[in-house]
Amino acid sequence: MAEEFLPYDPADVLISKATVEVFLSDAFDTGNAKLVSAALRVVARSAGMKAMAWQAGVAPTQLEHLLRFNDSSELAEMLLVTKQFGIEIGEKLPETCSRPGA
Fold this sequence. Notes:
By secondary structure, this protein is an all-alpha fold.
């Protein structure tokens, strides 16, 4: 009998600033730009793409384009958007945040 897997969207569990910080911190720790880009898209979806675009001062379509991270020239723009998420690159997590299993 084959195992059945249900769809899972990580955006559904990003319900607090602390969970977003852990999620993004783990993505940035990989150093993989495509993974970071995907993680930022998940966070934007969890917060609402239109709301995040408005907070970042860009159009929703521009935010979607920025979060695709197609080449390194877009890194500076992407870093501006991450500031709107309240995350500083290289930021240490508060002591109150812990990763599962830590």
